[in-house]
Amino acid sequence: MTSGALARVIRSAADRRPDAERCDLCGAEVFSGHRHLFETGREAVLCACRPCSVLFVEEGASEGRYRLVPRRRVRLPPVDTQGLGVPVGLAFFVRHADDTVTAHLPSPAGATRWEADRAAWRDVVSGCPQLAGLATDVEALLVNTAHGAREHWIAPVDDCFRMVAVVRREWRGLSGGSRVWPAVGQFFAELAEQPQ
């Protein structure tokens, strides 16, 4: 390695901020407002820099290992989710390509998951036809009826997992403490303010 090449490597390493968020595909630094990809095999949300996200411009495409997470957020009228058997007022539901629907409940330990009843999901969709257009794996029905709230959204899964992180970060004791529900309320207020 020449001294010029070595100097470039050292400068490049010095320019990299260790605390910066990185693209999970190429390692480039990502900035506020970056896009996310959903890795279907691991069911994981990954950060993507602009060049990598451009590779997956067909939002909601149903094939491939990586799927671009859409930015669509739609506030819905109240949706009757009682038939889905949700024991708490904060949850999100993701439809998959095989027509299964997974329910995710945020908790201090992360998201608890179970498969929702298919007939019950069809009933929910018949009551709210907009849900028939949910992009598989990358969009969800996001529900907050805890503590008197009445929030129902079609939301990207990265927003849903961000809500799970809020619950994990703010939860205290057995009931959640005094910080978790105001933080959840703030999350939904910010959701309404975000650009589409």
Give a quick account of the main beta sheet: strands, pairing sense, barrel closure.
6 strands, antiparallel
Q: How many domains, as an integer? A: 2
Structural class: alpha+beta
Order of helices and strands: HEEHEEEEEHEEHH
Question: Can you put this structure into words, describing what you see?
Answer:
It comes from Streptomyces gibsoniae. This is DUF5947 family protein. InterPro entries: DUF5947 (IPR045991). The structure is a single chain. The longest helix has 14 residues, at 157-170. Helix 4 (157-170) runs antiparallel to helix 5 (180-193). The protein folds into two domains: 3-68, no CATH class; 74-193, no CATH class. 29% of the residues lie in helices and 23% in strands. The protein has helices at 3-15, 50-54, 118-127, 157-170, 180-193, and strands at residues 35-39, 44-48, 66-68, 74-75, 90-95, 101-107, 110-115, 139-144, 151-156. The chain is of the alpha+beta class and 196 residues long.
